[in-house]
């Protein structure tokens, strides 16, 4: 069972990212503030929820959340600042866009770059423990998946419609055959040195 809140004195926003380990595309992050009576029986860490149910949850979250925001940092910036900093930057951008200012941030994971002077708590596997982090997980995942499905139309050889940019065997073999495209993360060292970009 997910906890609805970490505490009840401060307005808290759950934050999570999607796409940190991918070979291609941006990293997405979401921040979500939930009401006291929020409940959905399917809500969980996005990795534990099937794709159609994630979309059902996304609609429910966006309809019932007090505030939510989703942001992304593209692959070029990931290459410039590294994926960890890019993940935190995406979270910061999402927090910036919240219509209500939170008083406490709940971060999925064990590290965070502080956002201004706002208090925060890092919660390992928080997307399976706290409802607002799980909700952020669902939003970040569904928005990123949609983004990668759209990119698939431009570069179908990499099968992003299925793998969403993760390093599946089909994706790796396509990189070996066709090289990298402009959406790949060049800093991830995912290509043999002799290959060209296109």
Question: Any overview of this molecule?
Answer:
A hairpin with an 8-residue loop joins strand 1 and strand 2. Helix 2 packs across helix 3. Helices cover 37% and strands 15% of the residues. The chain contains six helices and five strands, in the order ββαβααββααα. The radius of gyration is 17 Å and the shape is globular. By secondary structure, it is of the alpha/beta class. It has a single domain, classed as Nucleotidyltransferase, domain 5. Strands 3-2-1-4-5 form a five-stranded mixed β-sheet, sandwiched between helices.
Main features:
6 helices, Nucleotidyltransferase, domain 5, globular, 198 residues
CATH top level? Answer: Alpha Beta
Q: In total, how many beta strands? A: 5
Unreliable segments of 5+ consecutive residues: none
Mean pLDDT: 95
Q: What structural class do helix, strand and pairing data support?
A: alpha/beta
| Total domains | 1
Strand order of the largest sheet: 3-2-1-4-5
Q: Major beta sheet, specifics? A: 5 strands, mixed
Described by the principal axes of the CA atoms, the overall outline is globular
- How large is the share of residues in beta strands? 15-25%
CATH architecture descriptor name: 2-Layer Sandwich
* CATH superfamily grouping: Ribonuclease H-like superfamily/Ribonuclease H
End-to-end separation in angstroms reads: 47 Å
Q: Order of helices and strands, N to C? A: EEHEHHEEHHH
Report the total helices. Answer: 6
């Amino acid at each position: 069972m997910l906890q609805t809140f970490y505490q009840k004195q401060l307005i808290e926003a759950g934050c999570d990212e999607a796409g940190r380990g991918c070979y291609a595309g941006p990293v997405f992050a979401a921040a979500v503030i939930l009401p006291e009576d929020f409940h959905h029986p399917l809500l969980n860490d996005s990795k534990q929820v099937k794709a159609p149910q994630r979309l059902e949850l996304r609609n429910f979250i966006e309809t019932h959340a007090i505030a939510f925001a989703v942001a992304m940092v593209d692959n070029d910036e990931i290459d410039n600042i590294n994926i960890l900093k890019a993940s935190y930057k995406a979270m910061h951008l999402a927090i910036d866009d919240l219509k209500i200012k939170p008083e406490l941030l709940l971060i999925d994971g064990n590290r965070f770059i502080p956002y201004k002077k706002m208090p925060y708590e890092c919660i390992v596997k928080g997307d399976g423990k706290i409802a607002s982090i799980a909700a952020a997980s669902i939003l970040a995942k569904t928005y990123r998946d949609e983004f990668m499905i759209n990119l698939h139309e431009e570069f179908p050889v990499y099968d992003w419609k299925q793998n969403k940019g993760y390093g599946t065997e089909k994706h790796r073999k396509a990189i070996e055959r066709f090289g990298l495209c402009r959406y790949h993360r060049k800093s991830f060292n995912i290509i043999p040195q002799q290959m060209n970009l296109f």
